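Q: what sequence does this backbone want?
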């Protein structure tokens, strides 16, 4: 498991004086990118390959308030397609006592920044992604695993 620690700042709180939803999202994003960099997928590598990660969804579960102090955010690879095009990350949040105060299931993919289309990871990055810490229930993903069957786009009717 990859862990990153954050100090909860005043501007990370919301009107109820607990950690704001947007702060959870920012902490997870920072943790993800740190974990990728730690495993050799850094900004320069992504620039050279002209690819970037795209989030399909993040589902956050809140268990207990975070009010002040520090919070640790974990990163684990919960799933990936064989070609690396799709991924699923799991984040858990822990307070100073080690209590699990929140969790997030996140799915996404990699896009070619020129064509703006989903792409498979180049072999050099695929091996790096597969070397990341995995959940005990890690699974191989397929395209059908990436979208919710109950939610689909609905155009605005004029």
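A:
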């Amino acid at each position: 498991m990859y862990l990153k620690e954050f100090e909860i700042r005043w501007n990370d709180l919301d009107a109820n004086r607990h950690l704001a939803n947007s702060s959870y999202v920012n902490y997870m994003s920072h943790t993800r990118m740190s974990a990728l960099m730690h495993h050799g997928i850094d900004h320069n590598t992504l620039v050279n390959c002209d690819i970037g990660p795209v989030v399909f969804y993040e589902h956050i579960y809140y268990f207990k308030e975070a009010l002040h102090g520090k919070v640790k955010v974990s990163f684990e690879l919960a799933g990936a397609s064989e070609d690396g095009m799709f991924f699923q990350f799991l984040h858990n949040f822990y307070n100073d006592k080690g209590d699990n105060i929140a969790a997030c299931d996140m799915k996404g993919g990699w896009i070619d920044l020129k064509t703006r289309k989903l792409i498979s990871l180049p072999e050099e990055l695929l091996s790096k992604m597969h070397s990341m810490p995995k959940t005990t229930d890690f699974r191989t993903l397929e395209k059908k695993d990436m979208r919710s069957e109950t939610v689909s786009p609905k155009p605005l009717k004029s």
